[in-house]
């Protein structure tokens, strides 16, 4: 069995372990749900069957039913929610900005500066610590393990909306929507410079850097990295910066940030991708002081996960949510609008 590491996974897949199983020669035919359950040490047959029903399990690249019987040479690929120890997460009474909630899921607004999941250097104060406390103090629901189901994430310094599954059934259904790229997500970004066109599509592979694996690099030749597609459109031109919307067709780590750098328009004040330097404008000291003041007001990359749309996993209703722009971005946008007026 080969486990695919999460280092190369898209953002929405980072809370799942991906597996590939090969059926050995001489293996007698066996139902696929039993075959996978026998191979996996920390899962249940019902969880495997739920994954199969949602189309996450494939045999030789094709979706199968739970009664499919494996044959010698079959290659089985699937994803399972990562197993975590209870000690991994400390419940903390951190206020949550909940925008929607029912028995099956909730939509929360994550502020910039909050890490989604505990990791090295950020073991407390994360969204998961807050969710753990919230779920521990909820009445037990049928099918609810008592822990939040993270389906996707956004960067620490990106603000915006996230959907959280509250049951195994909801988790599996939402996971499939992300895998199928049917989730509708719109981001708002401020980028350096003014693109020549009013809209465009960036279809360039993205992969982790060799020297620094925290940085994602664009691979225009397509031989390295993984497929990544971003559709962007100009909202407003502000002389030396531009406000754009970005719609993700895929969900790679740092996709918008890496793609915008690739086309020569890094996000405003994005230190990891060169946006924390003056990329457009004059060399006058007043302009430099103005930019530094903008950086102080917005001490992060100018990126906001504005909207989130998906099919409710139980009711099959189409749900759509929008989160207002955070004050730091609004303040800097207003400063640029005034700057453009003054310069005219």
Automatic annotation (TrEMBL):
Catalytic activity of the protein: a uridine in RNA = a pseudouridine in RNA
Its EC number(s): 5.4.99.-
Domain RNA-binding S4 per the UniProt entry, residue ranges: 30-95
SUPFAM superfamilies according to UniProt: Alpha-L RNA-binding motif, Pseudouridine synthase
Keywords: Isomerase, Lyase, RNA-binding
Enzyme superclass (EC): isomerase
Single GO BP term: enzyme-directed rRNA pseudouridine synthesis
Pfam families to which the protein is assigned, alphabetical: PseudoU_synth_2, S4
Gene Ontology MF, one: lyase activity
Active site: 155
Protein task: Responsible for synthesis of pseudouridine from uracil.
UniProt name for this protein: Pseudouridine synthase
Species of the source: Cyclobacterium qasimii M12-11B
């Amino acid at each position: 069995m080969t486990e695919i590491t999460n280092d190369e996974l898209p953002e929405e897949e980072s809370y799942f372990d991906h597996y590939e199983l090969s059926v050995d020669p001489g293996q007698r035919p066996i139902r696929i749900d039993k075959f996978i359950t026998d191979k996996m040490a920390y899962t249940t047959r019902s969880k495997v069957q739920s994954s199969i029903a949602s189309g996450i399990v494939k045999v030789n690249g094709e979706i199968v039913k739970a009664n499919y019987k494996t044959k010698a040479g079959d290659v089985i690929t699937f994803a399972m929610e990562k197993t975590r120890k209870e000690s991994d997460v400390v419940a903390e009474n951190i206020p949550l900005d909940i925008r929607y909630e029912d028995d099956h899921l909730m939509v929360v607004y994550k502020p910039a500066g909050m890490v989604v999941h505990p990791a090295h250097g950020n073991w407390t104060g994360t969204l998961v610590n807050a969710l753990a406390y919230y779920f521990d103090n909820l009445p037990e629901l049928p099918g609810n393990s008592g822990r939040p189901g993270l389906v996707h994430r956004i960067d620490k310094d990106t603000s915006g909306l996230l959907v959280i599954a509250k049951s195994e059934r909801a988790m599996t259904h939402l996971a499939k929507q992300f895998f199928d790229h049917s989730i509708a997500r719109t981001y708002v970004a401020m980028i350096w410079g003014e693109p020549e066109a009013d809209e465009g599509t960036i279809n360039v592979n993205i992969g982790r850097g060799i020297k620094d694996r925290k940085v994602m690099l664009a691979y225009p030749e397509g031989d390295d990295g993984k497929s990544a597609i971003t559709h962007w459109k100009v909202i407003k031109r502000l002389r030396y910066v531009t406000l754009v919307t970005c719609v993700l067709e895929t969900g790679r780590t740092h996709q918008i940030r890496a793609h915008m750098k690739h086309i020569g328009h890094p996000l405003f004040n994005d230190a990891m991708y060169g946006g924390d330097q003056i990329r457009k404008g004059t060399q006058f000291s007043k302009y430099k002081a103005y930019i530094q003041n903008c950086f102080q007001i917005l001490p992060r990359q100018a990126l906001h996960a504005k909207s989130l749309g998906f099919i409710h996993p139980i009711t099959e209703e189409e749900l759509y949510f929008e989160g207002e722009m955070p004050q730091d971005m609004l303040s800097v946008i207003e400063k640029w609008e005034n700057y453009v007026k003054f310069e005219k």
